Amino acid sequence: xxxxxxxxxxxxxxxxxxxSFSVMAQEDLGLADADRxxxxxxxxxxxxxxxxxxxxxxxxxxGTGGFFYETLFSYNAVKNDYTPWLAESGEWVNxxxxxxxxxxxxxxxxxxxxxxxxxxxxYQVAKDSEIYYSPIWNWLESVxxxxxxxxxxxxxEPHYAEWNSELYERYIIPEHIxxxxxxxxxxxxxxxxxVGTGPYTHSDSAQDRMIWRRDDNxxxxxxxxxxxxxxxxDLVNQSNNITMGMLMKGEVDFSNNFIPGIERIKDQFGLxxxxxxxxxxxxxxxxxMYMNLEREPFDDLEFRxxxxxxxxxxxxxxxxxxxxxxxxNPTGLFGESWLDYLDEDVVEEYGFEYDPxxxxxxxxxxxxxxxxxxxxxxxxxxxxxxxxxxxxSGWSDWMEAIRIVANNAQEIGLNINPNFPDSSLFHxxxxxxxxxxxxxxxxxxxxxxxxxxxxxxxxxxxxxxxxNNGNWGAYDNPELFEKIDQFNMTRDEAEKQxxxxxxxxxxxxxxxxVPLWHNGMWGQAMTNNWTNWPTEDNPYGIPVSGGVxxxxxxxxxxxxxxxxxx
Length: 566
Fold this sequence. Notes:
The chain is an alpha+beta fold. The chain has 18 helices and 20 strands. The strands form 5 sheets. A 6-stranded mixed β-sheet has the order 8-9-10-1-11-18, with no helix packed on it. A 6-stranded mixed β-sheet has the order 13-17-12-16-14-15. A 4-stranded antiparallel β-sheet has the order 4-5-7-6, with helices on one face. The protein is globular, with a radius of gyration of 25 Å. 46% of the residues are buried.
């Protein structure tokens, strides 16, 4: 059977498999009185039944941040542009104080006024109790309300780059509600019908969906415009294949799933993607090959350098992703705000690309040769060299990617075997340094500063019993850590550029990781029910609903800008 015939057969099977779920999903949305032109159906980010709407948990229901609760600013990562949201404005008034002027005439959904006390409380609760953003108090000195609409943040050690992200990542909570919750219940309390300032409220939920209802009294209607969908139905993700079938039948309007083979179905079914052609998707984060520097042979810089030349990144891009991702820049940087600091001269001098002959030359000169004639390279002392590369079981694209890495290794005589433990075991091994090689990305996604990326591949959080904050390979370079911190703590642009070049040079010289590809900001839309989706040519918003800050990076603007099909 031809490749085309196989694809048609697989496509038919996908449509058949999706039928039972999609009919069930459409049978009773709980919206019998609503017209389909008022309903937006999305999927791809809700991986289990809605269980908690607690914004103090990073794992709260998708949309709780952005629909219920809002941030001081919104950030468009494509335009590298901040939009005042709950804030009217904000500025550094001196080197260590940042003043926010809040919008007036903003109310919580229970009618109470939103004001400076809510902002102060949002930060104070993180000082008084241990929650996920409490570490900000390591460098924040005080938060004070100067009047009802003015908040002054004072820092004893201002982290400017981190603060730029904080402005669009921290969801503000109502003081008059949360101050009544006992400290021991702050992260255990279920908040199914919370009081927020956002454009949507909880309408209904079930094991397989979350339904949001538009708040027609939202303060932002007069400032930004009213979101067009009256209801947003977020379906629990079943599988990428089922989602593809539902997209093709027009039952899902927008998906954040990884859908392979888009180039074959895009035009046939009218799928809208950010780019018209490959890679179709914006980049979202960098997948790195982390090497355990506390184990041989990765404690040898020459061996690590060979790893950079060994991997054919383009094969991963083409064979695994069908061109839906980009091969990683050797620095790992991507996106407008990060590439502003890319030093092309440093990349030219110290970067690497797929070159198996160069990899073999480096290994030969470093003594990694086949000493016993069995076809595999050995350690310089003649002992066997057998390594393992690991990703979680079920991550099908990553599993295929490390098979390619293993094949690349075999071509130059290195014995590297893929391993696929379940995700819990994978994470345990990652945190405890029990691996040779892994593919991983730090929690950082596309953001406003390359500090976020650098802090994920090289930081000082490696001296405890576990490593749970990036730098999985235990790369120890205090001088570099200091430079990354300096980048974080300076506003002088010339100094930032100088530090950025030095950071990139050191990382390329020391090779603690090998950046492989930039994972996509998966997003596919249909035009059966909604049109005017954001694209490269019309980037008024970014249709992304994943991550801590996804909704505040352009999803709300997307809901305002799309139009129902008449």
